[in-house]
Amino acid sequence: MKRQAPSSPNPDSWIPPDPLGLTGAGFATACQSAPGTPRGLEAIAAYRRFHREGIVPPGTDPRLHAIGRREIEGETIKFTLELPGGLETESVLIPMRRRDGSTTRTLCVSSQVGCAMGCRFCETARMGLIRHLEASDIVAQWHAATHQVGHRPKNIVFMGMGEPTDNLDAVLPAIRILADHDGPSVAASNISVSTVGNPDGIRRLGRLASEPGFHRLNLAVSLNAPNDRIRARIMPVDRDWPMDDLMDAMRGWPGRPKSAICIEYVLIPGVNDAPEHCDEVCEYLRPLRCSLNVIPYNPRRNSPWPAPTESSVEAFLARAIANGQFTKRRGTKGRDVMAACGQLGNPDIRARRRVSDGTRVGLTRGSVALD
Q1: Residue 173 lies in a domain
Q2: The pTM is what?
Q3: Structural domain contains residue 62
Q4: Which of 31, 108, 278, 341 is catalytic?
Q5: Which strands make up the sheet holding 76-82, listed edge to edge?
Q6: Residue 19's domain spans which residues?
Q7: Domains in the chain: how many in total?
Q8: What average pLDDT does the structure give for the chain?
């Protein structure tokens, strides 16, 4: 990481601007009262260089975290960023093959350390909620992937550790920074936010998607069951946010007329993979313009379920398509290094349920017994 020397020493009485936690306009405003920082158009140019070239602007103090563990399976890279208090984020760079033979990369970012939602099939849920990430912590994952790992992501998916709608005070500003034309400049159409199905969170996220420049922001909903009875067994949030309420929120999503919500369905043997389950979920989705994304279950540590067989996955896909539901399969990448969907979460940190760093107290649904 390259740094420019500040033109004057910084006083101790103020906090230097952090270009990871501000949009370009916000950074330029913060620099107006910060000693030794660039001004006006120079501030915008410095902000642009920071995100595009990794050059730290003079007089600033971005929250650049050191990369900790790095695990690689094929071209899939899982890396951690070290946070204060011995905590860490986990992020995954996923290769995406294009028809012309080239490769782009999708970055799966975390929004929390741990998660309070308690989904029984998810490794992160076993941690409970330990800490909310700040907007700068989220953007730092993109910055590290681009300037430390060396792969600039084309797409960003909020599908790592944590429930994004449980931390929208950080997630919404992070999306604005990531989409800033003078910053990371990731198109809103290349940003997806996945949620367990918080109706109020979907509506609040939808207000951002209603703004100019964000109409093509993508919504993904982790459904994973054909009815409330099964969903409540594997996703305790269904008791507070049943599927009828979830459908009402999804139908109000303000996307483009041709946009489709991504419905994520983790296929778990003996739980939600029967033919009648497929028929029921397709019937539930009939009022909604959506894509059913079938995800073969990636076993968490000490999982009560195995991964599904290839024949059961193919049978579910074929039946959904026969039902007239647009359906696709999500490829499994990174399973051997615990980097696949539902596998993120450091077991060594799990025992620390909270840290005394002043972060907000999250929901308590993570207290559900998962073992």
Answers
A1: yes
A2: 0.85
A3: no
A4: 341
A5: 67-73, 76-82, 88-97, 103-108, 155-158, 191-195, 218-222, 261-267, 290-296, 327-329
A6: 2-6+13-56
A7: 2
A8: 86
